[in-house]
Task: inverse folding
């Protein structure tokens, strides 16, 4: 078997030329993100979603940088999504372990909305997105990765940020480390 041709990009980049693979070249470059398999396979999801095993219940007991917490309120807090759709993807979580929006008290529901507004302002200041997706996936059938603890997604969007990758490869390339994103948003949060 002949030696494989050099990758089309530098060794530090995870993109490879399709010609380096066996068979007929298909014209695609491949970006390998093996760290995402932990999420795709479900290994990163807690087996126990009770308050004792819930990562959203555990996070507030840790230091903000280690937990990726951006801001804390009275009833809710903002945390970076460990498996973000886009850089700056925030989750607004109540401290209380409840599965449904209808389970929130009026004070919790009000602060969830206020924190969503502040998240948008902080993201606008720190990342300058052109739009946002906000949503609650209530129940595993609706797409909630951790269905037992309600959380609102605040996803910044930019023109052209979406492509076929997440749909067919179940992968997303992110240009910034989570710790850097958390630091930038925590600083921006203080100024909104």
Result:
């Amino acid at each position: 078997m002949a030696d494989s041709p050099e990758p089309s990009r530098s060794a530090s980049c995870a993109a490879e030329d399709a010609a380096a693979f066996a068979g007929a070249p298909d014209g695609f470059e491949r970006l390998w993100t093996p760290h995402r398999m932990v999420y795709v396979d479900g290994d990163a999801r807690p087996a126990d979603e009770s308050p004792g095993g819930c990562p959203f219940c555990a996070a507030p007991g840790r230091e903000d940088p280690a937990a990726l917490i951006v801001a804390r309120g009275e009833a809710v807090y903002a945390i970076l999504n460990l498996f973000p759709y886009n850089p700056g993807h925030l989750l607004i979580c109540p401290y209380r372990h409840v599965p449904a929006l209808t389970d929130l008290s009026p004070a919790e529901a009000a602060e969830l909305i206020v924190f969503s507004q502040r998240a948008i302002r902080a993201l606008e200041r720190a990342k300058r997105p052109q739009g946002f997706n906000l949503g609650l996936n209530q129940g595993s059938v609706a797409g909630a990765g951790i269905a037992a603890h309600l959380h609102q997604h605040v996803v910044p969007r930019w023109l052209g940020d979406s492509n076929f990758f997440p749909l067919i490869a179940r992968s997303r390339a992110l240009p910034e480390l989570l710790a850097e994103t958390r630091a930038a948003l925590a600083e921006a949060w203080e100024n909104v």
The longest strand covers residues 131-136. The chain has six helices and seven strands.
